[in-house]
Amino acid sequence: MTHRSFGDRLAAEFAAGRHLCAGIDPHGPLLADWGVGDDAAGAERMGRDVVAAAAGVAACVKPQIAFFERFGSAGFAALERVFEDARAAGLLVVADVKRGDIGSSFAAYGDAWLAPGSPLEADAMTVVAYQGFGTLTSALERVERDGKGLFVLAATSNAEAAEVQQARRADGRSVAAAMVEDATAWNAAHGGEGGVGSVGVVLGATLDLAAFGIDTAERPTGPSLPVLAPGFGHQGARIEAAGAIFGGIGHALLANESRSILNGGPNGLSERIRERAAAVRFALSGEPA
Ligand SMILES: O=c1ccn([C@@H]2O[C@H](COP(=O)(O)O)[C@@H](O)[C@H]2O)c(=O)[nH]1
Predict the structure, then answer these.
(1) InterPro entries of this UniProt entry (predicted)?
(2) Do the domain assignments include residue 1?
């Protein structure tokens, strides 16, 4: 069976003016604000409410798996139902799992989160390639074969990231820049000249990317690099600054917001998601919703 690539599916979201990635992060205090328990049922309630409110408004949802994993098997069962709702609503799901290992073990992470028919099948997952970009090979095969996507951590939004991600490798590139360049090169080799690639990177919106050795100049050819950008909202970055932060590598931007959307409980959730989606759309395209 031939699958539509993840990059093509992202491109369709962007063409419809959807660039918001709505986070599903069931923090304990947020669940208390929502009037539900700090348990798997509470996390499921939040996740399914976000999916219902984000459908047709956001490009994707991004469940932060840690908040489900803390409830063990009940948390994973809850997550499966959130994924089912998202699939039924036609929403892309980016599983924020940040997995990485030696290649043979990493393959099993790909099986869990990307294999068609897996109980936890998502459209894309976040991955860590600090054991070498080559460890991603099995998941990159899934990208091609199954129409899946990857977001490789490159420059993360947290202040502690600089000590590792700004470090220079033996080839002279910073760790962060190498992730960006390797993902860009993979897309160019596998996705032709245009459109949106299926392998993206995570770049924090809170950062000065130049300090991470990342060149934000326009790429003259090749597919656009998907950029999953956390840091907007609660962490302080402003969507109005997206152009200045990402420059020529921000054409395929997914602006993530989690706590800024979830704060305030289920009442007003739809309005908050619509408001943030419209602000992101306006900032990135100049088009009102
Ligand atoms: O560099 C990174 C990578 C991932 N995250 C995740 O994104 C959300 C951000 O949540 P907010 O509430 O909008 O701050 C969360 O799931 C993080 O684990 C990130 O923040 N930075």
Answers:
(1) Aldolase_TIM, OMPdecase_type-2, OMPdeCOase_dom, RibuloseP-bd_barrel
(2) no
